[in-house]
Specification:
- Helix 2 crosses helix 11 and helix 4 packs across helix 10.
- By secondary structure, the chain is mainly alpha-helical.
- It has a two-stranded antiparallel ribbon. Strands 2-3 form a two-stranded antiparallel ribbon.
- Helix content is about 70%, strand content about 0%.
């Protein structure tokens, strides 16, 4: 088993807990950089999709996993970022300024929904964000000058300083770079007082407020940062799909993102990545399983949403910490072997917010 002895205060806020982590992340970085030279273009495109979903999951993880605010309207932020980005690209704005503007537009929308929603909690906040998503989808349909209405709008190929990203390789590196920069930014933000305030609000709003945390300000900031990341993911998503229509950004997409966070593991950057892997691979697995299932089941149009629901229920009941929690248990097993005790991860009784005050 690995023992970490901390001799400096800076170790508590370090990006990497020990040198072994640095080694494995370095190895992963080399593998990701070399991937275009080792795998087929189809799988490279799937990896690009994985990076985009990871960025979208990271955006919701900031809000739900670290600030404790439930949102079922993140598809609206993806749509705002995608449509604003395409609108600016059509008018000759370069790629990076257009993406940043798309993120800023989504962040502004996040502030608009965040200011009135900060007084809500739980199911009421979820309903408010769901209503915002429905309103945004209706705006996408009606605002034809920006979105093209129901007929949609074509997305031009991305260009970076005159270099066309039409192929899978260039777009792959673009998605990877954006994801890495955003992950590093969020990791540093979580080490700062802002991230600590979000976690305090998530754990107990009363305790956070008693320590001087401005609840309204930090909740609004969480909405803005989350929406900004979702806007960037929407801009990349627009280039990936090639053609935008309003029926892409439905509340069903928001529910899929929420499931991504739940299955991956709430409150963890790794959880966003694991959840994205799950969301990208599951449709392929379901398509393969249809060949082996009885015809009456395989031909059901609701087979995929049904499997999503079953998996989500099983995760909530059997592994609340998601895939990230399962991965941590596996690592801990090998660290402790052969002295591993299953009682180490025995679930303790948890209390509701109201029970904490009694």
């Amino acid at each position: 088993m690995r023992f970490i002895f901390k001799t400096r205060y800076d170790q508590d806020i370090g990006l990497f807990p020990h040198r072994g982590t640095v080694f494995w992340y370095s190895l992963l970085s080399v593998a990701l950089v070399a991937a275009p030279f080792l795998i087929a273009p189809y799988y490279l495109g799937e990896l690009s999709f994985l990076f985009i979903w990871s960025l979208a999951g990271l955006s919701l993880m900031v809000l739900a996993g670290y600030a404790g605010l439930i949102s079922i309207g993140h598809a609206a932020f993806l749509g705002i970022g995608a449509y604003v980005h395409v609108y600016l690209i059509h008018r000759g704005v370069p790629l990076l300024p257009s993406m940043l503007s798309a993120g800023a537009a989504a962040a502004a929308a996040g502030v608009v929904i965040g200011v009135p929603a900060i007084r809500m909690r739980g199911i009421y906040l979820a309903i408010a964000t769901l209503a915002f998503s429905a309103i945004a989808q209706e705006v996408f349909v009606r605002w034809e000058a920006l979105t093209g209405g129901s007929r949609g709008v074509a997305v031009p190929k991305a260009q970076f300083f005159g270099w066309s990203l039409e192929g899978e390789v260039g777009f792959y590196y673009l998605c990877l770079s954006v994801l890495v920069v955003c992950i590093l930014a969020i990791l540093n933000l979580l080490r700062a007082p802002t991230g600590r305030a979000w976690i305090a609000i998530r754990d107990s709003e009363i305790a956070a407020q008693s320590m001087g945390v401005n609840l309204a300000g930090y909740k609004t900031l969480a909405f803005a940062v989350s929406a900004f990341l979702a806007g960037l993911a929407g801009a990349l998503f627009a280039h990936k799909v090639g053609y935008l229509t309003p029926d892409i950004f439905t509340p069903v997409l928001s529910i899929q993102l929420l499931m991504l966070v739940m299955v991956g593991g709430v409150g963890s950057i790794h959880g966003a990545i694991f959840g994205a892997i799950f969301l990208v691979l599951l449709p392929t697995v379901i398509a393969l399983l249809r060949d082996y299932l009885p015809a009456g089941i395989a031909q059901q149009p609701a087979l995929e949403p049904g499997i999503y629901g079953v998996i989500l229920v099983l995760v909530v009941l059997l592994e609340p910490l998601g895939l990230n929690g399962l991965w941590r248990k596996i690592k801990f097993f090998f660290w402790q072997f052969p002295m591993y005790k299953s009682e180490t991860f025995k679930r303790q009784k948890t209390y509701m917010r109201t029970e904490r005050l009694q």
